[in-house]
TrEMBL record:
Pfam families membership: Glycos_transf_1
Name listed for the protein in its UniProt record: Glycosyl transferase family 1 domain-containing protein
Organism of derivation: marine sediment metagenome
GO MF annotation, one: glycosyltransferase activity
Stretches assigned to the Glycosyl transferase family domain: 155-283
Length: 365
């Protein structure tokens, strides 16, 4: 292979398996490094385990690579380097816009982030869309499940997975679930939550005054797909996502998926393959004592909160449609059939084609 046959990439990321950016970096590197079009070296700020399959890519020799920083753009890059990043806001904070303007190129997560970045950067032509990669062999309607330590009379289980922070808007989800179902012994809400500092999960959850049919699922499940196949529906009520990985994973596992009709969710979700929550107009986050990420989500950031009556309506609709259905029959529902087709835009082949297109133009500059 001659030097002209491929492009060298140095991908800088945390590669953390429990964070959105880390999973994004892992999936993207896997998608492009298997192609003869790219030679990929990785750089991680933390030591990687010896058995990590990506570890050998740290030893790859490259001469003049395109350097891609797969992080939130809250720092300035060296000349000629680029960002691979995302936003859930109407307009990113000014310091992020400044750093993105200094970058040689910007790989934006999906159509939503591409649109936002093109609107606020001085050179919109240097912004290119790249999707969040998922492997169909890891997600699907058929496969192992898990057993929950809850009473057997809860036949219908809603699930949410995420970190406790103001953006996820989990308190709204809990409030809407309580208002819609009360202490029902037929339906429950499972919350797989992570927290830190003041957001110690048990204490935070008790502060929300949960009903008896709301349960915390401790982080003991090794594979997300096993967890998803063990419930009846997935729901999130955030005020914005760059993409929204758990919703995509739920759809690939054939679950009825409820999500806001807004932001990165619309990269893959629509009225034909999911249940969309109406949202309010743009409004400021404002000062919120629960916002532990104010440096990333400053009070003057604008977002769209989901309408609570629409949250309740979608909860009720999904429950009524699927409460008597067997899990194996879900795949025949018209929306689930369409949801499974999301695989076409998150597979390695699609991601690779996006990178070929982006770097064709980047290399010509």
């Amino acid at each position: 292979m001659s030097e002209k046959d491929y492009k060298e990439i140095l991908w800088v990321s945390s590669f953390n398996k429990t964070t959105g950016y880390g999973v994004w970096g892992r999936g993207t590197v896997n998608a492009i490094q298997s192609s003869n079009d790219f030679l990929v070296k990785i750089k991680c700020p933390f030591p990687m385990p010896h058995n990590d399959p990506l570890r050998p890519l740290q030893e790859i020799e490259v001469e003049k690579p395109y350097v891609v920083h797969n992080f939130i753009p809250n720092y300035k890059l060296s000349e000629g380097e680029g960002f691979c990043s995302c936003t859930e806001l109407r307009r990113p904070p000014d310091d992020q816009i400044y750093n993105l303007n200094q970058a040689k190129f910007v790989l934006a997560l999906g159509d939503w982030c591409t649109k936002i970045y093109k609107e606020c950067l001085d050179e919109p032509e240097k912004v290119f869309p790249v999707n969040f990669p998922f492997h169909r062999r890891l997600y699907g309607p058929i496969g192992p499940t898990v057993k929950f330590d809850i009473p057997d009379h809860y036949k219908f289980k809603f699930l949410f997975v995420g970190r406790i922070d103001v953006r996820k808007n989990i308190d709204t989800l809990i409030r809407c679930f309580k208002e819609e179902f009360g202490d029902s012994k037929d339906v429950c809400l499972l919350l797989k939550l992570n927290g830190e500092g003041y957001t110690c999960v048990p204490k935070w959850l008790m502060d929300q005054k949960p009903t008896k049919n709301i349960f915390w699922v401790p982080n003991r499940v090794q594979h997300m797909a096993d967890l998803l196949r063990s419930v009846n529906a997935y729901i999130c009520t955030d005020f914005g996502e760059g993409w929204g990985g758990p919703c995509t994973e739920a759809m690939l596992c054939g679950l009825p998926t409820i999500m806001p009709n807004h932001s990165g969710h619309l990269n893959y979700g629509n009225e034909y393959n999911s249940w969309l929550i109406d949202v309010n107009d743009w409004e400021y986050i404002g000062y919120n004592k629960n916002n532990i990420y104010q440096h990333l989500l400053p009070p003057n950031s604008m977002v769209k909160y989901p309408k609570e009556d629409s949250v309740r309506a979608n909860l009720a609709q999904v429950y009524e449609q699927f409460k008597d259905a067997k899990r194996e029959d879900y795949q025949y529902h018209v929306k689930i059939v369409e949801a499974l087709k999301v695989e076409r835009i998150v597979c390695d082949r699609y991601i690779l084609e996006q990178f070929k297109t982006a770097f064709k133009y980047i290399s010509e500059e």
